[in-house]
Structure formats: C-alpha cells, structure tokens
Amino acid sequence: MSEQTIxxxxxxxxxxxxxxxxxxxxxxxxxxxxxxxxxxDEFVPMGEDxxxxxxxxxxxxxxxxxxAASVASVVAQPLDRVAEALQRISEILTDRSSGIDLxxxxxxxxMYTRARYAPYVEKLLLDGARSKLTRAALETLAVVAxxxxxxxxxxxxxxxxxxxxxxRTLLMRGLIAEAGTDDDSxxxxxxxxxLFLERLGLTSLSDLPDIAPLxxxxxxxxxxxxxxxxxxxxxxxxxxxxEGAGSDAAPAFTVDQD
Length: 258
What we know:
Elements: H1 2-13, H2 18-21, H3 23-32, H4 48-61, H5 68-75, H6 79-95, E1 100-105, E2 108-113, H7 118-130, H8 135-147, E3 150-151, H9 152-159, H10 164-172, E4 176-181, E5 188-192, H11 194-200, H12 218-227, H13 235-238
Antiparallel strand pairs: 1-2, 3-5, 4-5
Helix pairs in contact: 4-6, 5-6, 8-9, 8-10
C-alpha cells in the first residue's frame, strides 16, 4: 500500500515545472506580433530626419512601385513607422507644390511628376529622343534585338560592360520594353518594340540581317572569360596598372555611359 501512496504523490511533483509552462502564453504573444517578423532588437536606430532622407533616396532609384514592407526590410525599421514616414513625405511634397508627387498605388509607393509640369517633361524627353544614339546604345540595342527576350545581365555579358545606363536610355526612347521575367533567375527580360521596327524600316524581326550566329552564347562567353588570362594575346589587358614598361596601364572598360 505504501508503494501505491508513493505513486499517488508523484503527480504532485509534476506540478513543480508549472512555472516554466507559464512561458507558453508569452510565446503566443510573440507569435501574435508576426506582422513584423524581426524583433525590436533587430531594428537599427534611426532619427526621423535620417529615415525620411533615406526613403527619398530609395524612392528615386526604383523603376517600379515598392511596398512599404519592402522598404522597411531595407532600412530595418518597423513597418508602421515606415508607412507613416512615406505618408509624411507625400504630404510635404504636396504642401510645397513640388514637381514630384509621391503616390501609393496597388503595387506600392513611387515618385511621379505632377501633371501640371507634363509639357516641360515631354519637351525634354522628345528633344532627347531626336538626338542620335551613341555607339554603346546601338551595340546594346543590337544584342537585345538578336537575343530577345534577354535579361540585362546577359546583355552585359555579351558586351562585357555594365549596360544599366544604356538600357534606361533605350527604355526611355521606347526602343525596348520589358518582356516578362526569366524562369530561372526571376530577372526582368527585354525585347524590342514596334517603334524599333518602324525606325529601322522593318516589318518584322525576321527582316533583320542574319548575324545572330555571330553573337556567342552565354556559356561560350563564360568559358572565354575563364580562359582569357591564359591567352598571350590578351596579356596586356590582364596587366595590372603600372606593370611592365612604359606608361601602358591595363584599360578598364567597365561601364557604358550614354
């Protein structure tokens, strides 16, 4: 019988761990704040003026609307604080009759030019569109034409330089346009437009001269890049600045500027 009594007393001992179990509701409270996955200790200290200036810088470089959540993750700030700051920037621009308008659409936040200044913006863009394309722009346009749809990185790989500025110029002039995203990388792909055909006097892409085979595949470009250092003919290109006789330094062709 004493053994049975001991067995009855054992459950009383199991009540001692009740204190740790009180942490259960605390965990659920943390889960309830799942709107912001990162804890307060992961937020970066940032003053109000600095936050607004940072958001303005980000909004100036985005090509498409960006959500408040995406901005919050970049600046490491609470979502509600970022949303309030975006709204404040919009109000400030409106109050001082700025030519820039920050608006929230279904896709997110983005800066736009105000309608009242459209005539001046159009004049600037049209004047620029009448100027001739640079050699860099023409070469980039050719790569897009023969490899479309193609990502920006693939165009850069073919040309061997950064083509961001040139691609923006071609987009602005309406010669190329977005054509979905790459299935593997998710990168935006580009194609030529009807305006491109019109400017070249073509009815379809099939009228383009048959020079596509002269543009190597990306795999071939990667192989060439890896073996370039072993090729004697390109020894000068691989030389570091100041190396070798004379004032010859390794040329740095890295960025196209249009």
